[in-house]
Amino acid sequence: MADTASRTMIRAQGRKAYTAAFGPSRSGRRHPLVATAMVLPLATLLVVVFGGWEAVVTQASSVGVMLGR
Description:
This is ABC transporter permease. The chain is mostly helical. It contains three helices and no strands. The chain has helices at 4-22, 32-50, 52-66. The relative contact order is 0.05.
């Protein structure tokens, strides 16, 4: 417990290094359309590469049956 000051200094240096490398963190929220625009290219790539369209259709069909539609 007597060695807490040095650990606190090390943590502070780590935070400074992280901020220097990745920039300051923003506390605001991202607009939903911006988030969607960021995710869609990756989602499209994953659907094409792994053939996920059939899985999406199957799951949507199963949910529809469970809901009685």
